[in-house]
Backbone:
């Protein structure tokens, strides 16, 4: 961290800042420029919040030099992390496709979706039992009944499952029935929930919040790793911007950026970003070509009757066609499906 | 709601849409334009999600006509709601100032802050016991001990108190010690938490999420009212934009917009928006001049040693000076402090 | 267009709106819902601005139904437009790569860049002679001297050239020396400039403004087509968001969205979006996999000494490696380079 | 400026960076931290672009320490600038209100608007003769005829006038007929235009682009001052965000932020930000309470028949009522109207 002093800040103010830095256990390193003095803080600023130094007299700004995350970063863990689960590896050679309906609606719906998804070559079945909805009047999910359905159906088709946990209190319940626990975009900074999934022995699929920076995504992952759970999969699902033709803006750059700074695997959710099934294929291809380790795709046997997000769900035959294309683009990336 | 058909969509597709609308219990009303047919859906579209109709063949788009909230809206509740608590009224003639430190750090800190706040004329003491922080390495609050401190100090000074509840499980605990329960920006769409505070008998201060539209803010308030708790105070605290000189962008328009569409009181938090104490006075004045019913301001006896957000906290003497100005601008608005 | 009346707006107000609609030469079509009356406006609302109807008493909102563009849209021009120039076709089977330095700095620099670009298989040489820079103290380009250099060098290597025109007054000058005229992101809504390039016989590369929606991009293209120039190439180059690890956010969805609504070819500029060379390969691959017809890539023989945007420029050897990968991904899309 | 080296960058790479810094005429100042080396660049980095150093081997990032503007900044010009024109002072004690229609439509319309504006106490008449419109099918303004009308009408009422220049070629023409030249939001980074208005002897009203940072606004003003014209008035008019209930988000913080870093006067345009007349009063009050030196307000004698932006225009009687309120809030700020 660097403290930039104001134009004309005198010796007394500089000394005061240096002394405050010392109080927090850091060393100060002065550099007097033509117009301003800057003071380098020597020590690991990630573990101590020194932002309040900006409030000292004569200080103009505090500039962070190091990235604020540690466990998820590559500096001390250069090799890629591979999340392993029952023979499926996320972050390794194979691109892993997770697919299924937005919400679990009924046995027949989930069964039909699982069948389609399995036949097309996906490895993980997705489906929400607890649905976070903007309006209290929208369908909120089947709850525990949905979890049980999911457990039965994924078993029958030999798929893994991923479903969302909404509150700290339900993490254990969800973990009982599902293989991968999803933290949704709206909960990316629900720190109590992050700590809870950090304590259990299940891979966590952490979705980027729609208005969170990549840095904050990595810091949220840091919460989980700090509790002891190292099996975190990052997921880009679109951020909120001014653009109106899509539901969100898939930040495809998030994939190479995460790969540069972190060792964790990264997947993309093209469905929530697009908000319309007609863009899902294009975004899926883009994500894999940008280096994603997998995808989370919404597939519904009958989108026009879906209780949630039908508009952005692929029909089984469209999904099957997409999987063929994905196989080809994965091969270009030196990977397989 | 209105269904816009694609250019050239034929009779069969139109009939299909009309029949689907009927299945959901609504009436369809056709209007054939020069280039396209549009189909009006007659009925209360707020209570049923019909977005999936967009997936029917021949449909180009679904356009919402009504605002999706009901209980918080002015259509059926034109008069302003006044939130009353122990003689303090929020949303009535008096502008209510809530002030105090970001986080409760120690008895002496809270005591000094409460004293300053009380002397300057504020009615409510703010202070966090559970702090949501982006980094797991930042100070996370004193927890229940902080709540107890808060209860003691606010009692002594004859102030009301407001503090944040982070998880559904701690709502009751927070309610035991505090007068107004705050839902923080990161939890505005934590629907389990919203439902929980909807069930208790305490006013709720609902902060707008930094990534949420005003419509979503009102829908989140709708969750609380739908559970039976009508004492909700809306709070604008800045949204996330591309601008970098401030921590967030205070959306001052949110105040008249909320006043137009909703009967609930609206306050502003200039401190989190500004991110720097030097803009707090200007934003506070702006919010009251735009019609806000109150403010939530960070005041710290010694900002340079604050464990959280010191940079944006006012010193007691600055706060006292601000209160004088606020009194004058409130008078211009036909109100008092 | 649809006029939504306020809750409780009476007969008199409705009649007034209907009569105003008639005055503008449109027909009104009433639809009385449970709570509100909506009035459909029958006629081509794209060519008349009726937004001010929102100011009539009793009106709640005006809702647009049709997309506001016409000449660039697919409704009346379903087939893809192919921009042809000296044997190069943009928007046809071959993916067209345009590459070169951000700014033309010297003959040796441009010569080295052109050589690298040609050898790697690009068809168009890019390079700016007039540079729009945020700061008046940054390098502003070589001007006409740069244009002449460009003309000489592209000739020698048998490349086409693309360079930016900044003002209406210099359009003719730029057209004299270059094959494709670029309209930069900052000028996407410089309507005088758009009209000027609409009058000349040269393909136009229209970059999306960093603050503009896809709809506005298409409307800006409409300005050019309306003047008679149909050879417009759309270019996604990243939009401005809150994310800080990249210079802009490449909106990869813009590619399939433009393809859906417009018949014009679409390319992407991964370099300006990324702001760092290390993400350029990933974004380039993503754009082609999402269906882009080409790329505009910054390549510099010695990025560390570049006078502009060196940070995001690829060295020749990196570009050559990228071209191989692009060839493979183009093949997956059924295209070649 | 500070160069942050990568974790583990060795002596050779550090020496290379130091030597490159020397080549550009700056001194390097090393600071070796626990994990990384940082290199301070001593000298005025505002006048030289050193961003490309980021491309040197071993460099992680370049961090700017100084604000990149100089002439518009307070460091070397601490006192407020007052823009004077025919007895009207902008940036002094009096708050200056500029009002009138969005577009000049006819003599009777402009006459009626001018009369209303004058009677209510405004000092400057606004009105556009050249209108930048997103769609080529929208009304584009009366051109020179409009300028002449404006000159006649403002003369008759003893008002000053402000109108927009769209292209460098028309700056002189506009300057011939008007007192203050406006640079619109879409042209904030039209650098050729900025240079042109920098050369003439007329105050310039520089509007912030809807997706430009305050820093970029100040840099655009720097372009004008660098050409010799010091009479620049900054104008906040709303930025583009994800919020949909208003046309743009008035960034009221821009006012105190500009006041902190720059000596130039700052006004606000509440009409374009709001996009609806019903929020204009609230935003106007907010802007003055936040410290603005004036306002630019749309007033139209008959908004429902306006050819442009009628929806956001105030009727004369609403404007008159607003002026009374503004007078009161100006008094609170120690100012008058």
Residues:
């Amino acid at each position: 961290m660097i403290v930039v002093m104001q134009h004309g800040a005198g010796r007394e103010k500089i000394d005061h800042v240096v002394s405050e830095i010392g109080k927090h256990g850091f060393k100060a390193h002065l550099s007097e420029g033509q117009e301003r003095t800057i003071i380098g803080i020597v020590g690991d600023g990630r573990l101590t919040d020194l932002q309040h130094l900006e409030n000292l007299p004569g200080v103009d700004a505090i500039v962070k030099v190091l990235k604020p995350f540690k466990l998820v970063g590559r500096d001390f863990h250069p090799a890629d992390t591979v999340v392993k689960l029952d023979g499926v590896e996320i972050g390794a050679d194979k691109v892993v496709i997770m697919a299924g309906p937005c919400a679990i609606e009924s046995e027949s719906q989930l069964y039909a979706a699982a069948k389609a998804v399995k036949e097309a070559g996906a490895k993980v079945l997705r489906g929400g039992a607890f649905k976070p909805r903007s309006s209290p009047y929208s369908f909120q999910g089947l709850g525990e009944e949905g979890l049980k359905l999911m457990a039965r159906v994924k078993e029958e088709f030999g798929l893994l499952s991923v479903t969302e946990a909404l509150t700290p209190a339900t993490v254990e319940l969800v973990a009982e029935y599902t293989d991968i626990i999803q933290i949704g975009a709206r909960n990316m900074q629900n720190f109590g929930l992050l700590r809870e999934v950090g304590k259990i022995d299940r891979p966590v699929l952490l979705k980027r919040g729609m208005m969170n920076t990549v840095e904050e995504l990595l810091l949220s992952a840091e919460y989980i790793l700090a509790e002891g759970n190292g099996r975190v999969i990052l997921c880009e699902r679109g951020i909120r911007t001014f653009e109106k033709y899509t539901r969100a803006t898939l930040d495809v750059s998030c994939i190479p950026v995460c790969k540069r700074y972190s060792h964790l695997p990264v997947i993309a959710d093209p469905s929530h970003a697009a908000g319309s099934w007609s863009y899902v294929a294009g975004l899926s291809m883009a994500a894999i070509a940008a280096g994603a380790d997998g995808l989370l795709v919404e597939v519904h046997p009958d989108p026009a009757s879906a209780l949630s997000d039908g508009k952005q769900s692929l029909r089984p035959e469209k999904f099957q066609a997409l999987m063929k294309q994905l196989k080809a683009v994965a091969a270009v990336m030196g990977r397989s499906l």
Notes: Chain C has two domains: 2-63, 83-332. DSSP finds ten helices and 14 strands in chain C.
